[in-house]
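Input structure tokens:
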């Protein structure tokens, strides 16, 4: 008796791992969006402000808690607590010391709110990345040096100074020869090309200024 050449395919029962993998694959997008995505500036850890705030609050709370425990144990309250309670009860709200203390506390609170809502790390410039989970930054000093080198390669430029700001780049160049208008046009084109090579997530606006220097 001859065996059939076409044997039936063996079937395998799907395991729990296969089912989880199938569900996970179904949640993934079919095709990632094309082109690089602009990345935001990474957030600073704020270690120094957080440490100072935690130390101050911990010290004040610890001293106050220690005095409360002493009072609960039968000892008299500390003299500084009595003086502080008397000052707060007797001084009016329009007193100079009260207003100064309130202003200092309000300024510190506003400073902490600004630190909490702003990313910080202003010395780092975010770069374009292919995905939202990838971050790349460029140091601001390095970016200034790149643009300065590009400016120095323009014919007629003898000295250049580049400064990065939040939304613009200020470039000051000295012209030894050629007309300032021609040098400015070439300098603008060279700096725009260099900015494209840097691939910044938020390209700043160029502010180019030239001045003739004959001596």
């Amino acid at each position: 008796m001859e065996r059939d050449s076409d044997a039936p395919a063996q079937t395998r029962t799907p395991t729990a791992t296969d089912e989880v993998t199938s569900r996970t694959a179904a949640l993934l997008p079919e095709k990632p969006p094309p082109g690089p995505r602009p990345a935001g500036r990474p957030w600073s850890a704020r270690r120094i402000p957080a440490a100072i705030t935690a130390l101050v609050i911990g010290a004040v709370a610890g001293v106050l808690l220690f005095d409360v425990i002493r009072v609960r144990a039968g000892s008299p309250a500390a003299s500084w607590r009595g003086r502080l309670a008397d000052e707060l009860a007797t001084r009016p709200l329009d007193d100079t010391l009260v207003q100064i203390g309130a202003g200092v506390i309000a300024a510190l609170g506003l400073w902490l709110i600004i630190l909490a809502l702003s990313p910080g790390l202003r010395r780092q410039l975010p770069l374009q990345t292919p995905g939202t989970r990838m971050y790349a930054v460029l140091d601001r000093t390095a970016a200034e040096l790149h643009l300065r080198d590009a400016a120095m390669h323009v014919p007629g430029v003898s000295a250049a100074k580049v400064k990065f700001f939040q939304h613009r780049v200020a470039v000051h160049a000295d012209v030894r020869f050629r007309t300032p208008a021609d040098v400015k046009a070439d300098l603008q084109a060279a700096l725009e090309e260099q900015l494209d090579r840097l691939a910044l997530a938020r390209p700043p606006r160029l502010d180019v200024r030239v001045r003739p220097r004959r001596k």
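Helices lie at 16-27, 47-72, 79-90, 96-117, 140-152, 180-198. The first strand starts at residue 124 and ends at 126.
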